[in-house]
Amino acid sequence: FTIMYIKEFGKINYIYTFNKRTNIKRFHMKIKGLITACEVLYNSNYIVLKIMKQYNGSFSGAISIIHLKKKTIEKIKRSSLFKDYTISPHDDSIILNGKHGLYSYSPFSKKLEKILSRKKIGSFGARSTDLQAFLSPNKQSILLLKGSGGSYNAKVMTSKSSKYLSSITSSSEVFWLNNETIIYRTGSPGYFSVKSYNIVKGISKTILKGSYNTNLCYSVYAKFITFLKDQVIFVYDVRQNKTIALGIEGEDVYF
Asked: What are phi and psi for residue 2, nearest 5 degrees?
């Protein structure tokens, strides 16, 4: 049971891991810049950071792919300073918006593969540097998301059709539960909700209604969703369609 965490000292970030079973803390490396996003790949020793740096009054952004055990860093320059990528939890590929379309990059094979052309995306993401794409488990459907600050436009594309999805208010609280269903946060500050949407039936379902915060999180393997109802942690079992109140107060819940 290993926890990865980062300590910030000025403009330098120190990356550590802590093993709860052995109580061993290990320093891995340090990296410069302001971290605007951080994610751990599900099936490996990789972490992905979005780094913003300033030089001579100008800012630049890059994605840093770090292998903790090998202590290697691979950088991908980006025009956006903030998160403009997603991680596909089913194969740990990184989904990027590029000049000619959407690409899937594998840190393992180092291969870059186009998954959707700019022509098929159309005008939806034409001028958006922060366009994010979420692939369904079978990679046959894709959710496109653009916007910021709690206001997003969304478009679901399949091999047969495309449709717009309104009311998504967080790019970090969007997940595919299966090949047909998306779960996401909606609402406004002080009254957020959690909804699911079936792209085949075109039906939405409210799982949680009216919360100060949700902090929606999904475990791909356990098929559990966690969210907050006014700071109390709830678990939703996807397989049994059942919500369980843990009776524990919390702020951030992760798998």
From this structure: -120, 135
Distance of alpha carbon 237 from alpha carbon 107, whole angstroms: 31
Task: Tell me how far the alpha carbon of residue 143 is from its chain's centroid.
Answer: 12
Per-residue pLDDT tens over the stretch 72-85:
999 999 988 888 89
Burial of 4 (0-12, 13-18, 19+ CB in 10 A): middle
CB 217 within 8 A of CB 255: yes
d(CA 210, CA 200): 27
pLDDT for 33-59, tens place per residue? 999 999 888 777 899 999 999 888 889
The percentage of residues in the chain with a pLDDT greater than 70, rounded to a whole number, is 96
**Residue that the structure tokens 């299966």 belong to:** 178
